[in-house]
Write a structure and sequence with these properties.
Blueprint lengths: L8 H7 L7 E4 L11 H10 L4 E4 L4 H4 L9 E5 L13 E5 L15 E2 L5 E2 H5 L3 H14 L5 H11 L2 H20 L4 E5 L9 H7 L7 E6 L2 H11 L15 E3 L10 H4 L8 E4 L5 H8 L21 H10 L2
Parallel strand pairs: 1-2, 2-3
Antiparallel strand pairs: 3-4, 5-6, 7-8, 8-10, 9-10
Helix pairs in contact: 1-2
Bound molecules: pyridoxal-5'-phosphate (PLP).
The site of pyridoxal-5'-phosphate (PLP) has 9 residues, from loops.
């Protein structure tokens, strides 16, 4: 696998080689909140006869419809915004049916010994990739969704459009509030007018820039950890797209082992606000302070801080 720079479409061209099978991007990146130039990258992928696969999890089809910008395959972790309640794990692969597999060297056009030399592209035409997912991946790996989880995702999905708008509106309010806070060093949210991705936000998802973004607090690494351990409204956990507002400090948790973290540059230490908040307005109206001020769509109050297990154990130990 070769990495390219999501903010620079030409870096995808530079990464292409005769071995490239596909180009894979996120429409809105987790956790950076970068909005990717799908149209430009689709053209680059197609110039090399490879499909563009777009992970549309953070945008959901409510914000971005990648097929309209040239994507060939769309993925979703339905665990997140599509299900909307964090109660079941599921994923979707959506085949746009337009990619010319005849020119590619991937399974839909290869002769499959398992199926007596059948070429899926020849037999199934524009359904070739969807069929390949079933007769190769599903058959061999067995990732079948349980009926109960399918039901929960479908139930959760019924109000996904309304929820998505609320996620975005609240994220924008939180990002503006943080930006005006003297204890905050920087806020990276594409919905803010001075953000480098603002133009892409207006082009691809004018209804909202999603609800996941990053910010840095003054005071560096320790200040980031202190913040996460002090918040009362935001939950400290990593799953996004349900009804709670989440906060996590990647440098000390999810990315603690990454090489970039080892560089220990204080200015780069960051705290990611995974803000899916539909709830914080009312809580903070009641408490009269904090992140929720200015949020326009309050609903039921709820404060939950889930600490890392080791910390909970330490606390349990110290309190006897
Ligand atoms: C953008 C994105 N895609 C896919 C996934 C994988 O989701 P799942 O755990 O449901 O497989 C994640 C998980 O965080 C994600 O953020």
């Amino acid at each position: 696998m070769k990495w390219a720079d999501a903010t620079d479409p030409e870096s995808f061209r530079a990464a292409l080689s005769p071995k490239t099978k596909a180009v894979f991007i996120e429409s809105i990146a987790n956790p950076g909140g970068i909005i990717t130039d799908i149209e430009a990258i689709a053209k680059i992928a197609h110039s090399a006869d490879v499909p563009l696969i777009v992970d549309n999890t953070l945008a959901s089809p409510y914000l971005i419809r990648p097929f309209e910008w040239g994507a060939d395959i769309i993925l979703h972790s339905a665990t997140k915004f599509l299900g909307g309640h964090g109660n079941s794990m599921a994923g979707l692969i959506v085949d746009g049916g337009k990619f010319d597999w005849a020119a590619a060297s991937t399974p839909p056009c290869r002769s499959l010994p398992l199926y007596h030399g059948m070429k899926l592209w020849e037999t199934f035409g524009d359904m070739a990739y969807a069929i390949a997912c079933r007769v190769l991946a599903l058959r061999d790996l067995g990732p079948a969704l349980s009926p109960m989880n399918a039901f929960l995702i479908l139930q959760g999905n019924r109000n996904a459009a309304a929820a998505m708008q609320r996620h975005c509106d609240n994220a924008l309010a939180v990002a503006r509030w943080l930006k005006a806070n003297p204890k905050v060093a920087w806020v990276n949210y594409a919905g803010l007018e001075d953000n480098p991705c603002y133009a892409l936000h207006r082009k691809y998802c004018p209804k909202g820039a999603g609800s996941v973004f990053t910010f840095g607090v003054k005071g560096g690494y320790e200040a980031g950890m202190r913040l996460v351990n002090s918040v009362r409204l935001f939950s400290h956990l990593a799953n996004i797209g349900d009804t709670r507002s989440l906060i996590i400090h990647p440098a000390s948790t999810t990315h603690a082992n990454s090489k970039r973290r080892i560089a220990q540059k204080p200015a780069r230490r960051r705290c990611g606000a995974l803000s899916s908040d539909r709830e914080c307005g009312r809580h903070h109206r009641r408490s009269g302070s904090g992140l929720g001020r200015g949020i326009t769509h309050p609903s039921r109050p709820r404060v939950m801080l889930r600490c890392e297990r080791s910390e909970l154990e330490a606390r349990a130990g110290s309190s006897g």
